[in-house]
Amino acid sequence: MKQFASFVKKEFHHILRDRRTMFILLFMPIAQIIIFGFALTNEVKNSRIAVLDNAKDADAASLITQIGKSNYFNIEQVLYTQRDIEKIFQKGKIKMVIVLPQNFGNDLQHFNHAQVQLIADASDPNVASTLTNYASAIIVDYQNRVTNDRKLPYTINTEVRMLYNPQGKGAYSFVPGVMAMVLMLVCTMMTAITVVREKEMGTMEVMLVSPVRPLKIIIAKAIPYLLLSMVNVASILLLSVFVLDVPINGSLTLLIAESILFTLTCLAFGLLISTVTDSQQTAMFISLTGMFLPTVMLSGFMFPIENMPLALQIISNIVPAKWFYIIVKNVMIKGTGFTIVWKETLILVVMLFALLGLAIKKFKIRLA
Amino acid sequence: MNNGVVISADGLTKRFGDFTAVDAISFEVSKGEIFGFLGANGAGKTTAMRMLCGLSKPTSGKATVAGYDVYNQTEKIKRNIGYMSQKFSLYEDLTVKENIRFYAGIYGKPDNFIKEKTERVLNELHLQSEGNKLVKSLPLGWKQKLAFSVAIFHEPQIVFLDEPTGGVDPVTRREFWNMIYKAAASGVTVFVTTHYMDEAEYCNRVSIMVDGKIEALDSPTQMKKTFGAKSMDEVFIKLARKAVRSGD
Asked: What values do phi and psi take at B246, rounded to 5?
């Protein structure tokens, strides 16, 4: 036991003395939450648009006012000819142009049918489609008000309720994603690097010649990173609750238990990487491409898995982060309990033991 | 242990697939002896040493270290040996004292033993005032001497030194060998591999490995006589020329 304690103490020394790395490890999650929370958002606010009003009648004016009043759009420019549209998009500032045809008011009043053209800069397709959606919604809204006094023959009103996330906030999906990403980085990459560093320095050899059991070396290495990860989980959760207003709807204990499970899985993966590499660079490269990229791409946190080709959908199943992401989203946002996420939990447990078993086996082969 | 023999190998062999890294080597090392284990790169020194340290299972042959069998008593062997590699294997981001504490700790030495002996070792090395400095800040020669002290801190019967003087200047090498003599005089058996033939002269006996086999084993004086050579260098070149294998 004393032997083990001196090991853990040593690992803490390594981490605490490497100020720069420690700083990165502790502040990376905070920075990521803040960046994702305030900078990287799909929500569109105060987008610059231009209007080409060929009608110049009362109805056109009131529709334009309506659009200009919303928080989503700022009408920056008024165009006069069709040719200006191309020019203004090329300058890049304006993201969408609303074109009203010559007889807009007349058509609307007398033929019950008017047209509005929305031209968006789709060099950024996500923004373009969001903008046109918002604008369409405002136009539909306007139409409803105008036709209020007249009866339309048929209307279907859709009433939309956004469950679990009524405001449609991006934070609800990226907080679980950032958690998965950070834990992956801290645990997988740092564990792999720290073990490989001992190999590079030759200290691993000395330890293997000593009576310490290899398993003990490995566990002692993992403990400080497990603690560090829990600090990260805590800071991410605190920030999301108090800064981003993302609630923790489910059980906090369950959430933390699942985080520990995921952390252990990442640690096991890091150890596996460390057994197959001999240099810190290789370890880092494998961790980044083998773990970090799949976590970002295939966990469902950035891109919906349902829309991927079948092959990628199948591959996504072996990415631990995918399951953790589902678990956190369920527990944290939907407030579901263990009965709903037991399957995902079981998958993580199986992955943990498979990775750990493989890592230990590889470790032993190297000794023989 | 019989007749003071602490290491004995008899037909010790290690094969990796078709490749025979160590080919039936046999030798004995007695207590307090400084045994030089020479050979060109790729001759099989490291593999042989790994087997003796319990890091690698032999393919065939017999060997005991400190009286324990290399096949199934490796745990006991590990308790009784010290090891130092050419990388010195100290933690650069730990202080001198922390390094000593850590390595003594993994051998399960009691606190008061560690404390008292740490003072003694630092005194011998003239490192009293550097005890709380990071190893990073020490010059190479001191690191190397410290690494040796750490390797024998837990008072092993045998210490294995794997090219311990690589990259160190001649003066420091000389000092280092004085430490080895002192350790041997106190009864520690020293098993050392080296590339420096002048160092081979310091050993009580040397063996020279060529292509996995031990080609010569004797005291340096006797060996020079047998081969009609003026220096160990000459002996080594005569033998190593026969080598078919080369490189690492």
From this structure: -150, 175
